[in-house]
Design a protein that fits this description.
By secondary structure, the protein is mainly alpha-helical. It is built from four helices and two strands; from the N terminus they run H-H-H-E-E-H. A hairpin with a 6-residue loop joins strand 1 and strand 2. It is rod-shaped, with a radius of gyration of 29 Å.
Length: 154
C-alpha cells in the first residue's frame, strides 16, 4: 500500500507539472505566432499609409490646383475639380487600405470625394465628410489660418 501511495503521488504531481508546462509552452508559441502576424500586418499597413501619404502630398502641393480649387471663379474651380477627380480616381485603385479620398476647400465650402467602392454605406461616408468639414471649419474659425499642402521633403 505504501509503495503504491509513494509511487502514485509523485507520478501524479509529475504529470500535473508536465501538463502545466506543456500548456504554458503552447500558449507562448501561440502568442509569439500571433505577435508575428500582427507585426507583419502593421508593417504592411504602415507601408500602405506611407504610399498614400506620398500621393496626398503630391496632389496637395500643386499650388496652381489648390488655388484654382479654392478660388471664387467657377471655371477655375471646375477645372481643378475635374483634374483632382481624374488624378484621384486613377490612383486610388492602387491603395489597398484606402476606401476614399476627400478634398475640401474651406474658403468656398466645396467638396470633392472619390471612392473605390460606391456600394459601401452612403450615410457613413456622408457623416465622415460632415465631420471633416466641421473639424476644418472649427480649426480655421477665428485663427486666420488656412489649410495648405506642404512638402516635407521625404
Amino acid at each position: 500500500m505504501f509503495i503504491v501511495l509513494f509511487t502514485f503521488i509523485p507520478v501524479m504531481i509529475l504529470m500535473f507539472w508536465v501538463n502545466q508546462y506543456s500548456m504554458n509552452l503552447i500558449q507562448q508559441q501561440i502568442y509569439k505566432s500571433q505577435l508575428d502576424i500582427l507585426t507583419l500586418n502593421i508593417r504592411q499597413l504602415e507601408g500602405e499609409l506611407e504610399k498614400t501619404a506620398t500621393f496626398l502630398r503630391s496632389i496637395s502641393t500643386d499650388e496652381s490646383l489648390l488655388g484654382a480649387y479654392a478660388s471664387n471663379d467657377e471655371t477655375d474651380q471646375y477645372f481643378a475639380a475635374v483634374t483632382y477627380s481624374q488624378d484621384i480616381q486613377d490612383s486610388i485603385i492602387y491603395f489597398d487600405y484606402v476606401e476614399g479620398i476627400l478634398c475640401y476647400a474651406v474658403d468656398t465650402g466645396k467638396t470633392l470625394y472619390c471612392y473605390t467602392d460606391y456600394s459601401s454605406n452612403y450615410p457613413e461616408r456622408m457623416s465622415v465628410i460632415d465631420e471633416v468639414k466641421e473639424q476644418a471649419d472649427d480649426s480655421n474659425r477665428g485663427s486666420g489660418k488656412k489649410w495648405t499642402g506642404t512638402d516635407t521633403g521625404k
